[in-house]
Amino acid sequence: MEDALRGALGTAVLRPTGHSGGGCISQGQSYDTDRGRVYVKSNSKAEARRMFEGEMASLEAILKTQTIKVPKPIKVIDVPGGSTLFVMEHLEMRGLNRHSAKLGTQLADLHLHNQQLGEKLKKEESTVGKGQGQMEVQFVDQFGFHTVTCCGYLPQVNDWQNDWVTFFAKQRIQPQMDMIEKNSGDREARELWAQLQLKIPSLFCDVEIVPALLHGDLWGGNVAEDDSGPVIFDPASFYGHSELVMIFQCKRTR
């Protein structure tokens, strides 16, 4: 594995630092290279490449907003033996402590970033020679993401939708209900879901929802800090309702 990693990174030096980690999904190890220290996640499951590519795309999207710190993604690599590696910037992180308030502020900045781009675009469209084409980060007016992302191994289909209700019902709740039906055949859950679908639009009446770039799997295990402030990682991003993160937090703490 290390020979393949050395070749893919184009480095003569590849020295384990002793920093290792990981969770219930992937394992991780830090290495010193010619170009600095990197952190390498490894996974041998068949779904690993899809999972890592979604994570890389998510990190790239969050990084471009310049609102909150994330590890800079470098490369996804397939290695002999069937494993897949995800190489990213190594960060000296510790548990979130001093920077909790700053985390809240920066998450708000992240969630407002796309809306503010839209407001800026409207102003610039009235100026000759300016507009979306000259903006480094493009305004997104739909709900979804340009690739599949994963919460754990579970894929999230992020096909673009014009409204939040359709995206939320069709691509977030419906897959969960399909799994319930497949695994347990719960007829009552299916019947209740059929009733709820009819009522979901009424919950968002007269509410303007501007797509917000979300971490997508935010909980205490995916948040840390370094000397500069908070760090978020392991994202499964998409453009959605900015308050969806509150649902994730409520589910995690119950």
Radius of gyration, CA atoms, in whole angstroms:
20 Å
Number of structural domains: 2
CATH class of the largest domain: Alpha Beta
Q: Judging from the principal axes of the Cα atoms, what is the shape?
A: globular
Order of helices and strands: HEEEHEEHEEHHEEEEH
Distance between the termini: 41 Å
Structural classification: alpha+beta
Family: Belongs to the fructosamine kinase family.
Protein name: protein-ribulosamine 3-kinase
Enzyme class: transferase
EC number: 2.7.1.172
Description:
- This protein is of the alpha+beta class.
- The protein has two domains: 2-89, Phosphorylase Kinase, domain 1 (2-Layer Sandwich); 100-253, Aminoglycoside 3'-phosphotransferase, Chain: A, domain 2 (Alpha-Beta Complex), CATH 3.90.1200.
- Helices cover 39% and strands 22% of the residues.
- The chain has six helices and eleven strands.
- It has helices at residues 2-9, 48-65, 100-125, 164-184, 187-203, 244-253; strands spanning 14-22, 27-33, 36-43, 73-78, 84-89, 149-151, 154-156, 212-214, 223-226, 229-232, 238-240.
- A five-stranded antiparallel sheet has the order 1-2-3-5-4. A two-stranded antiparallel sheet has the order 6-7. A two-stranded antiparallel ribbon has the order 8-11.
- Helix 4 (164-184) packs antiparallel against helix 5 (187-203).
- The protein starts with a helix and ends with a helix.
Summarize the structure.
The chain is of the alpha+beta class. It has 2 domains: 2-89, 2-Layer Sandwich (Phosphorylase Kinase, domain 1), CATH 3.30.200; 100-253, Alpha-Beta Complex (Aminoglycoside 3'-phosphotransferase, Chain: A, domain 2), CATH 3.90.1200.
